[in-house]
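Sample entry (410 residues):
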Amino acid sequence: MVLWTSQTVSALGSSMSFFVFPLVGLALTGSLIQAAFAGTAFTLGSVASRLPAGVLVDRWNRRKVLFASSAAGAALYASLALAMLGDSLSIGHLVVVAFASGVVSSFFLPAETASLRRVVPTEELPTAFSHNQARRHVADLAGAPLGGILYGLGRAFPFLFDSVTYALSAVAITRMRTPLPAPRRDHAESSTMVRDIGEGLRFMLSHEFFRAFLAFAALANFASKALFLVLILKLASAGVSPAMIGAIDAAGGLAGIVGAFCAPWLIRRIPNGWLAIVGGLVSAVVLIPIAYTNDPFLIGGLIGLVLLINPAANASVASYLTAVTPDRFQGRTGASLSFCVTLLMPLGPLTGGWLLHTVGGPDAILITSGLTALAVAPLLLSGEVRRLPTPDRWAIPESDAMATAGILRA
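Predicted structure, serialized as tokens:
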């Protein structure tokens, strides 16, 4: 509970600051290009450091990684707030902090996921991951409005708020009672970074379930990014107001929160492999009527339906992957999966823009619907996915099940 609460607060602050980054960049330079770079520097830092961070998380004490990441985040955002208050903030300083924050997240996220194995018993992992889904939706829903309000009060306030949330996270981590030591290693400590990254990738790709989920998530993420751009521009060109478009996003966020809290109930009752498959198919089918309407209320309801189901599908798969991954591979596997499933995401908006230009809004949405349906094919073709039962019947290797037995909770 300590871990989840601290990161909910920190995620809210981060979502708010990422909304503010391009606004501050534009105010500093008057350049849309430089403002955009300030907004994307976080993603660059996260992608560039993700695989090495996963290796180090599997070498180091994970509690110390969590604390150091939170403390570093507090210091980084405090430096922005102080520079802003002193009227000395530069675009270079802003970009460096955004990039460094992405690096920090690359360490924190795999360490957090690996720590769940020791903090939460295996049978409660789906509930823990469902709560993480709720945390993400809450942060996405409230971050931008809160950032806008604080930015209106003073440009330093969003960064000051984020610094405080990271500091609170660091303090909360010191109160965790569960020990989170570095995992045992099968080979010499002198192993190289490249060897450890390769070992993690080989472990992931050697398992059918991992391969199926990787292929599904990579294509689904690509399609969703293309759809997001197409939908916004389609509605804007039809004369739908920005406020109403924002309301559609808010409705989806609210549905995601409700879905996250309903997820444990669904995960305990529906075979988890079919839960993931149905979630993907529903997403594809729901997109079809969106191609033929500009009614924001209908579109908001359809997107809400998708986000009502997705948290359960995501949480069931994520908790199963965490449960079956040996402790010594947790950091590398989480980082490798995250890296691979996001590789195509930057191409999504570009593809959406190209489709919108060449075939128009309705056909562009139908194509993204087809891509979403195609993404489900690896799950349908995988016997391991189709046979995945509810958590009470998961086949967890004995050595890994013991890793989460008899432990103290945070």
